[in-house]
């Protein structure tokens, strides 16, 4: 991959990778760090990566970097605003987007990742399998289970509104 092709990758994929990571870890600063680390890793290996495979390589690298970051953070504890909000009560309506985000956050990690890659980023089952290291049939099963959970969690639209 040439430097100009690398720059095209940055322009084309940075926002998508950032959205995917942010949906998973919900911390903009950490998401930016993961995206930056992923692009750095891609640049280090830019001579070995073809331009056609750059998107897949980038999302795969970002996914694994995010998992490493989550594991590292799980060993550290700190009281954050989200912990305070979790233990407080509010009676105001939060909106459908927040309800959906809350439902997605309750999914197991692998289901959350595959559903975000499929429904938010538009990857094919095969591409998701390459990114996550799962077989195509495993990806389909996890997506099916995640969608069933979301449907049951949210229920009918009348119940939410």
What can you see in these coordinates?
- The chain has 161 residues and is mainly α.
- It has 2 domains: 1-78, Rna Polymerase Sigma Factor, Chain: A, CATH 1.10.1740; 93-161, Orthogonal Bundle (Arc Repressor Mutant, subunit A), CATH 1.10.10.10.
- Helix content is 75%, strand content 0%.
- The N and C termini lie far apart (50 Å).
- The relative contact order is 0.11.
Descriptive labels:
75% helix; 0% strand; Arc Repressor Mutant, subunit A; 9 helices; 2 domains; mainly alpha; 161 residues; Rna Polymerase Sigma Factor, Chain: A
Distance between termini?
50 Å
Number of domains: 2
- Strand tally is 0
Tell me the CATH architecture of the largest domain: Orthogonal Bundle
In short:
The chain has 161 residues and is an all-alpha fold. It has nine helices and no strands.
Structural topology:
Layout: H1 3-25, H2 28-44, H3 54-74, H4 81-86, H5 96-105, H6 109-120, H7 125-132, H8 136-154, H9 157-160
Helix pairs in contact: 1-2, 1-3, 2-3, 3-7, 5-8, 6-8, 7-8
């Amino acid at each position: 991959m040439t430097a100009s092709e690398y720059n095209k990758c940055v322009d084309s994929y940075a926002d998508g990778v950032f959205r995917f990571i942010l949906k998973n870890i919900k911390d903009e600063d950490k998401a930016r760090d993961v995206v930056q680390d992923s692009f750095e890793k891609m640049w280090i290996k830019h001579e070995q990566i073809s331009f056609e495979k750059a998107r897949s390589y980038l999302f795969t690298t970002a996914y694994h970097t995010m998992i490493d970051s989550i594991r590292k953070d799980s060993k550290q504890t700190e009281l954050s605003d989200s912990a305070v909000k979790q233990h407080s009560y509010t009676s105001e309506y939060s909106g459908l987007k927040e309800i959906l985000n809350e439902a997605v956050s309750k999914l197991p990690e692998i289901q959350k990742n595959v559903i975000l890659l499929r429904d938010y980023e538009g990857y094919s089952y095969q591409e998701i399998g390459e990114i996550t290291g799962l077989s195509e049939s495993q990806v389909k099963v996890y997506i099916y289970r995640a969608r069933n959970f979301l449907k049951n969690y949210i229920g009918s639209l009348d119940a939410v509104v």
